[in-house]
Amino acid sequence: MSATRTWLRRFLAGTAVLLGAAQFFPPARNAGTTAEGPQSLAAVLNPPPEVRNFLAAACYDCHSDRTEYPWYARVQPAGWLMAGHIRDGKRALNLSTFAVLGKQAQARRLEYMRDAVAEGEMPMALFSALHPRARVTAEEKEMFARWTESVQTRQVVAAKE
Ligand code: HEC
After folding, report:
1. Mean pLDDT of 129-137
2. Is 61 close to ligand 1, i.e. is its CB under 6 Å away?
3. Which ligand 1 atom lies nearest to the CA of residue 112?
């Protein structure tokens, strides 16, 4: 057998062992009871159902205290990858604790959210590829932009009062 083939077989066997071992180290789960507790954006801003459904389908999995995990989250390294996105996503924006932000900061986050959705940066492309319900239509973009704008105006006015 050629040296290359021996090397390849060892490499594949080694990879299989590592992947097998990886299954014993699942990441901690983001498993709060709800994404919409008393401190959540949903509780504070009381969005209409279409906005709420949109956030639930497209954003909560990475930007709230509760992730609805697909089955493959139990398989490593997929679960680790997801845990990393959830950690970074919540650090940037946690919709379950939106109320801890002041009115101005809330308004700014709404603007970031609108821009991220309008520019197609959010939800992450890989997420939309795996979750058909999180594929954003032109109508959803427009609906979301209109809502964030209206709330932002309200927030800024409230902050000045
Ligand atoms: C698959 C996970 C995932 C989903 C789903 C997701 N995001 Fe994110 N989001 C992230 C990650 C990770 C970051 C942090 C990126 C970084 O640190 O550079 C982020 C960052 C952001 C930011 C901060 C950008 C900034 O400039 O600070 C906003 C706003 C945002 N996301 C909005 C949304 C909205 C709105 C949705 C739903 C329409 C959404 N995201 C869906 C993972 C996700």
Report:
1. 95
2. yes
3. 29
Q: Which residues pair with 31 in a beta bridge?
A: 66
Mention every residue, 6+ apart, whose C-beta is less than 8 A from residue 84: none
Residues pairing with 66 in the sheet: 31
Query: Which two three-digit tokens encode residue 46?
Result: 């009381």
The CB of 35 under 6 Å from ligand 1? The reply is no
117 lines ligand 1 (CB under 6 A): yes
* Nearest residue by C-alpha to atom 7 in ligand 1: 123
Helix (H) or strand (E) holding 87: helix 78-92
Best substitution site from 54, 60, 62 to test ligand 1's pocket, by max atoms within 8 Å of Cβ?
62
- Both tokens of 104, joined, read 């101005």
Return the half-sphere exposure (C-beta side, CA atoms, 13 A cut-off) of residue 63: 21
pLDDT tens-digit series, residues 62-114:
999 999 999 999 999 999 999 999 999 999 999 999 999 999 999 999 999 99
Task: State how far the Cα of 35 lies from the Cα of 55, in Å rounded to an integer.
Answer: 10
Whole-prediction pTM value? 0.92
